[in-house]
């Protein structure tokens, strides 16, 4: 019961990874606000049914939950989501920013609408809900935020400029929250999940390599990500903030931050020509390869 007495808001918890996190937090003793608009990944078919299903499972297991169906993509809605926790359970201790949509498209065909839709839910939504909870966290001197990022942003992927930009932006947002709110006892961390879910079901599986990657993902259920989310939200992680973690089947990883890895100095300064002649050969061995998540995590999950 690592979350006994705490109240958690889990966005996008009508299914998939969000549902598993909500269930695990309830099992660990938290009262949970299930936020989900019930739409498909393309934004169609709003419904309270997914949230109601999550709530029913929690209550069947003896837990307590409330439902909110507002979209995280608007500031006023984020305040309603947090207010739902206060109205139903009297406080808020945990925010899990999990809500997400996809508008995958090769970059030169990505429309402004596809860009904004993804940024609004993932990045703006993470800011809005975190910001709505921040004042309550500050006043009570405690609080934990768990933001769902992705290796699509941390490493890279094809056809996901909008999603990748949002997910890497969430890492910077989390670090800023950790820096700004540490003095108030508030922690902020990121979790990059590996799981087969709605968010990964659109991954192409045409070539033998793609099919093999999908098979590896399908072996990883969304529930594998829940224990780390519960830990990061608990008092057991009171010294953990500003970090990025990834659970992969039975493996756990921590990611490093962007830091300079090699430098070169020239007392008389640089010209474009001397950069080409001297700096490029010196710095090039430290360049980051143009890789995708599947290139880096290329072994079978264990």
Automatic annotation (TrEMBL):
<dbReference type="InterPro" id="IPR002347">
    <property type="entry name" value="SDR_fam"/>
</dbReference>
<dbReference type="InterPro" id="IPR020904">
    <property type="entry name" value="Sc_DH/Rdtase_CS"/>
</dbReference>
<dbReference type="InterPro" id="IPR057326">
    <property type="entry name" value="KR_dom"/>
</dbReference>
<protein>
    <submittedName>
        <fullName>SDR family oxidoreductase</fullName>
    </submittedName>
</protein>
<dbReference type="InterPro" id="IPR051687">
    <property type="entry name" value="Peroxisomal_Beta-Oxidation"/>
</dbReference>
<dbReference type="Pfam" id="PF00106">
    <property type="entry name" value="adh_short"/>
</dbReference>
<comment type="similarity">
    <text>Belongs to the short-chain dehydrogenases/reductases (SDR) family.</text>
</comment>
<feature type="domain" description="Ketoreductase">
    <location>
        <begin position="6"/>
        <end position="202"/>
    </location>
</feature>
<dbReference type="InterPro" id="IPR036291">
    <property type="entry name" value="NAD(P)-bd_dom_sf"/>
</dbReference>
């Amino acid at each position: 019961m690592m979350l006994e007495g705490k109240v958690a808001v889990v966005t996008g918890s009508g299914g998939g990874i969000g549902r598993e996190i909500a269930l695990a937090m309830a099992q660990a003793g938290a009262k949970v606000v299930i936020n989900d608009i019930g739409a498909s990944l393309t934004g169609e078919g709003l419904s309270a049914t997914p949230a109601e299903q999550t709530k029913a499972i929690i209550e069947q297991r003896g837990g307590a939950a409330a439902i909110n169906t507002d979209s995280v993509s608007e500031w006023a809605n984020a305040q309603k989501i947090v207010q739902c926790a206060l109205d139903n359970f009297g406080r808020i201790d945990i925010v899990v920013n999990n809500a997400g949509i996809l508008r995958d498209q090769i970059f030169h065909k990505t429309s402004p609408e596809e860009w904004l839709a993804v940024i609004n839910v993932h990045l703006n939504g993470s800011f809005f809900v975190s910001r709505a909870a921040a004042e309550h966290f500050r006043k009570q001197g405690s609080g934990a935020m768990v933001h769902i990022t992705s290796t699509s942003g941390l490493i890279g992927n094809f056809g996901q400029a909008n999603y990748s930009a949002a997910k890497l932006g969430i890492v910077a947002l989390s670090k800023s929250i950790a820096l700004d709110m540490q003095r108030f006892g508030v922690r902020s961390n990121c979790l990059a999940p590996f799981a087969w879910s709605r968010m990964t079901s659109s991954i192409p599986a045409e070539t033998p390599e793609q099919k093999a990657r999908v098979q590896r993902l399908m072996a990883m259920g969304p529930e594998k990500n829940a224990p780390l989310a519960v830990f990061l939200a608990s008092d057991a992680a009171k010294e953990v903030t500003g970090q990025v973690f990834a659970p992969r089947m039975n493996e756990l990883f921590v990611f490093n931050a962007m830091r300079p890895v090699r430098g070169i100095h020239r007392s008389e300064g640089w010209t474009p020509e001397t950069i080409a002649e001297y700096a490029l050969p010196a710095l090039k061995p430290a360049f980051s390869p143009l890789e995708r998540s599947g290139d880096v995590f290329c072994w079978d999950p264990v």
